Amino acid sequence: MKVTYYVEVLSSWCHWVEPVWAELKSRYAGRADFQWRIALMRTEDYPVSRRQCDWFYRRSGGTVMRSPVKLNSGWFESSRKGLYVAPNLVAEAGRDFGIFDDTVRLALSNAALIDGRKVGDMGVAAAVASAVSGVPPKRLRARAESAAVRARVDASTAEFHSHRIGQRPAFILEDAIGDKAVFSGIVRIEPIAATIESMLSDTAAYAAHGAHNGMPPEK
Asked: Distance between CA atoms of 192 and 118, rounded to whole angstroms?
Protein backbone atom coordinates (compact mmCIF):
# COMPACT_ATOMS: atom_id res chain seq x y z
CA MET A 1 0.00 0.00 0.00
CA LYS A 2 0.96 3.66 -0.33
CA VAL A 3 0.93 6.42 2.29
CA THR A 4 1.25 10.00 1.04
CA TYR A 5 1.94 12.80 3.52
CA TYR A 6 1.03 16.32 2.36
CA VAL A 7 3.18 18.85 4.18
CA GLU A 8 3.93 22.57 4.30
CA VAL A 9 7.41 23.28 5.69
CA LEU A 10 6.28 26.19 7.93
CA SER A 11 3.14 24.52 9.27
CA SER A 12 3.33 24.07 13.04
CA TRP A 13 0.92 21.13 12.86
CA CYS A 14 3.19 19.42 10.37
CA HIS A 15 6.05 20.02 12.79
CA TRP A 16 4.12 18.32 15.58
CA VAL A 17 3.21 15.30 13.44
CA GLU A 18 6.78 14.52 12.34
CA PRO A 19 7.36 11.93 15.14
CA VAL A 20 4.18 10.18 13.98
CA TRP A 21 5.43 10.14 10.38
CA ALA A 22 8.78 8.71 11.50
CA GLU A 23 7.09 6.02 13.61
CA LEU A 24 4.75 4.98 10.80
CA LYS A 25 7.67 4.61 8.39
CA SER A 26 9.56 2.52 10.93
CA ARG A 27 6.60 0.36 11.96
CA TYR A 28 5.49 -0.44 8.41
CA ALA A 29 8.84 -0.49 6.64
CA GLY A 30 8.70 -2.98 3.78
CA ARG A 31 4.91 -3.23 4.00
CA ALA A 32 3.97 0.22 2.72
CA ASP A 33 5.48 2.83 0.43
CA PHE A 34 5.84 6.23 2.12
CA GLN A 35 6.26 9.54 0.34
CA TRP A 36 5.83 13.20 1.22
CA ARG A 37 4.56 15.91 -1.09
CA ILE A 38 4.42 19.67 -0.67
CA ALA A 39 1.00 21.28 -0.20
CA LEU A 40 1.53 25.04 -0.09
CA MET A 41 -0.56 27.08 2.29
CA ARG A 42 -2.44 30.06 0.94
CA THR A 43 -1.24 33.54 1.89
CA GLU A 44 -4.30 33.95 4.13
CA ASP A 45 -3.40 30.77 6.02
CA TYR A 46 -0.37 32.47 7.56
CA PRO A 47 -0.52 34.61 10.71
CA VAL A 48 -0.68 38.34 10.21
CA SER A 49 1.66 39.21 13.09
CA ARG A 50 4.17 37.59 15.44
CA ARG A 51 1.73 38.17 18.29
CA GLN A 52 -0.95 36.19 16.47
CA CYS A 53 1.58 33.51 15.51
CA ASP A 54 2.62 33.08 19.14
CA TRP A 55 -1.04 32.71 20.13
CA PHE A 56 -1.42 29.88 17.62
CA TYR A 57 1.76 28.26 18.92
CA ARG A 58 0.54 28.37 22.51
CA ARG A 59 -2.65 26.61 21.39
CA SER A 60 -1.03 23.90 19.28
CA GLY A 61 2.12 23.27 21.27
CA GLY A 62 1.04 24.05 24.80
CA THR A 63 -2.68 23.25 24.97
CA VAL A 64 -3.09 20.46 22.41
CA MET A 65 0.32 18.77 22.20
CA ARG A 66 1.47 19.64 25.72
CA SER A 67 4.99 20.05 24.41
CA PRO A 68 7.79 21.31 26.68
CA VAL A 69 9.19 23.09 23.60
CA LYS A 70 7.74 26.44 22.57
CA LEU A 71 7.86 27.18 18.87
CA ASN A 72 9.72 30.27 17.69
CA SER A 73 7.90 32.89 15.61
CA GLY A 74 11.14 34.61 14.62
CA TRP A 75 10.73 33.38 11.04
CA PHE A 76 7.70 35.64 10.58
CA GLU A 77 8.16 38.73 8.38
CA SER A 78 5.22 41.10 8.02
CA SER A 79 6.67 42.47 4.79
CA ARG A 80 6.16 39.10 3.09
CA LYS A 81 2.39 39.27 3.47
CA GLY A 82 2.07 35.49 3.64
CA LEU A 83 4.49 34.66 0.82
CA TYR A 84 6.77 31.93 2.17
CA VAL A 85 7.24 29.62 -0.79
CA ALA A 86 11.08 29.55 -0.59
CA PRO A 87 11.57 26.78 2.02
CA ASN A 88 9.07 24.57 0.24
CA LEU A 89 10.79 25.06 -3.13
CA VAL A 90 14.17 24.29 -1.58
CA ALA A 91 12.81 21.13 0.07
CA GLU A 92 11.41 20.00 -3.28
CA ALA A 93 14.63 20.92 -5.08
CA GLY A 94 16.51 18.50 -2.84
CA ARG A 95 14.93 15.64 -4.78
CA ASP A 96 16.89 16.69 -7.86
CA PHE A 97 20.09 16.03 -5.92
CA GLY A 98 18.99 12.57 -4.79
CA ILE A 99 17.59 13.66 -1.43
CA PHE A 100 14.25 11.91 -1.16
CA ASP A 101 14.13 11.47 2.62
CA ASP A 102 13.06 14.02 5.25
CA THR A 103 16.53 15.48 5.93
CA VAL A 104 16.28 18.79 4.07
CA ARG A 105 12.61 19.34 4.81
CA LEU A 106 13.10 18.81 8.56
CA ALA A 107 16.18 21.02 8.65
CA LEU A 108 14.20 23.87 7.10
CA SER A 109 11.27 23.37 9.46
CA ASN A 110 13.50 23.27 12.55
CA ALA A 111 15.50 26.28 11.39
CA ALA A 112 12.29 28.29 11.24
CA LEU A 113 10.07 26.92 13.99
CA ILE A 114 12.77 26.14 16.56
CA ASP A 115 15.58 28.58 15.76
CA GLY A 116 13.43 31.37 14.33
CA ARG A 117 15.52 31.75 11.18
CA LYS A 118 13.91 33.66 8.33
CA VAL A 119 13.77 30.84 5.81
CA GLY A 120 11.23 32.79 3.76
CA ASP A 121 14.36 34.29 2.22
CA MET A 122 15.60 31.99 -0.55
CA GLY A 123 19.24 32.58 0.38
CA VAL A 124 18.65 31.57 4.00
CA ALA A 125 16.63 28.52 2.99
CA ALA A 126 19.31 27.37 0.55
CA ALA A 127 22.02 27.81 3.19
CA VAL A 128 20.07 25.73 5.72
CA ALA A 129 19.52 22.96 3.19
CA SER A 130 23.14 23.03 2.07
CA ALA A 131 24.40 22.56 5.62
CA VAL A 132 22.61 19.21 5.99
CA SER A 133 22.85 17.96 2.41
CA GLY A 134 26.31 19.00 1.29
CA VAL A 135 24.88 20.45 -1.92
CA PRO A 136 26.33 23.92 -2.62
CA PRO A 137 23.77 26.60 -1.75
CA LYS A 138 24.05 28.25 -5.16
CA ARG A 139 23.11 24.99 -6.89
CA LEU A 140 20.21 24.41 -4.50
CA ARG A 141 18.94 27.93 -4.97
CA ALA A 142 19.18 27.76 -8.76
CA ARG A 143 17.20 24.54 -8.80
CA ALA A 144 14.65 25.82 -6.28
CA GLU A 145 14.03 28.86 -8.46
CA SER A 146 13.61 26.76 -11.62
CA ALA A 147 10.30 26.50 -13.44
CA ALA A 148 10.41 22.69 -13.17
CA VAL A 149 10.52 22.67 -9.36
CA ARG A 150 7.81 25.30 -9.08
CA ALA A 151 5.64 23.26 -11.44
CA ARG A 152 6.04 20.15 -9.26
CA VAL A 153 5.13 22.07 -6.12
CA ASP A 154 2.09 23.61 -7.79
CA ALA A 155 1.04 20.16 -9.04
CA SER A 156 1.34 18.50 -5.62
CA THR A 157 -0.56 21.39 -4.03
CA ALA A 158 -3.35 20.99 -6.60
CA GLU A 159 -3.32 17.26 -5.90
CA PHE A 160 -3.79 18.00 -2.20
CA HIS A 161 -6.81 20.21 -2.93
CA SER A 162 -8.25 17.59 -5.29
CA HIS A 163 -8.98 15.48 -2.21
CA ARG A 164 -11.25 18.31 -1.02
CA ILE A 165 -9.32 18.86 2.17
CA GLY A 166 -7.78 21.99 3.61
CA GLN A 167 -5.88 21.03 6.75
CA ARG A 168 -2.24 20.01 6.93
CA PRO A 169 -0.84 17.57 7.81
CA ALA A 170 -2.85 15.29 5.55
CA PHE A 171 -2.36 11.59 4.94
CA ILE A 172 -3.78 9.67 1.99
CA LEU A 173 -3.77 5.88 2.44
CA GLU A 174 -4.28 3.71 -0.64
CA ASP A 175 -4.07 -0.07 -0.94
CA ALA A 176 -3.77 -2.58 -3.75
CA ILE A 177 -7.48 -3.42 -3.77
CA GLY A 178 -8.64 0.12 -4.44
CA ASP A 179 -9.46 1.33 -0.94
CA LYS A 180 -8.56 4.87 0.09
CA ALA A 181 -8.61 6.64 3.46
CA VAL A 182 -8.09 10.37 3.91
CA PHE A 183 -6.88 12.03 7.12
CA SER A 184 -6.71 15.81 7.20
CA GLY A 185 -5.43 17.66 10.27
CA ILE A 186 -4.91 14.48 12.32
CA VAL A 187 -1.72 14.49 14.43
CA ARG A 188 -2.20 11.33 16.53
CA ILE A 189 -0.82 8.01 15.39
CA GLU A 190 -3.63 5.75 16.64
CA PRO A 191 -6.29 6.34 13.95
CA ILE A 192 -3.77 6.30 11.12
CA ALA A 193 -2.01 3.15 12.30
CA ALA A 194 -5.32 1.38 12.91
CA THR A 195 -6.43 2.16 9.36
CA ILE A 196 -3.14 0.95 7.87
CA GLU A 197 -3.51 -2.30 9.80
CA SER A 198 -7.06 -2.76 8.54
CA MET A 199 -6.11 -2.05 4.93
CA LEU A 200 -3.13 -4.39 5.03
CA SER A 201 -5.32 -7.10 6.53
CA ASP A 202 -7.97 -6.70 3.83
CA THR A 203 -5.33 -6.77 1.08
CA ALA A 204 -3.83 -9.96 2.52
CA ALA A 205 -7.31 -11.53 2.66
CA TYR A 206 -7.90 -10.73 -1.01
CA ALA A 207 -4.54 -12.26 -1.90
CA ALA A 208 -5.32 -15.41 0.08
CA HIS A 209 -8.70 -15.75 -1.61
CA GLY A 210 -7.09 -15.34 -5.02
CA ALA A 211 -4.47 -17.97 -4.26
CA HIS A 212 -7.19 -20.51 -3.43
CA ASN A 213 -9.83 -19.54 -5.97
CA GLY A 214 -8.07 -17.85 -8.88
CA MET A 215 -9.70 -15.13 -10.93
CA PRO A 216 -13.44 -14.47 -10.58
CA PRO A 217 -15.65 -16.26 -13.13
CA GLU A 218 -16.70 -14.19 -16.12
CA LYS A 219 -20.35 -15.25 -15.73
From this structure: 33
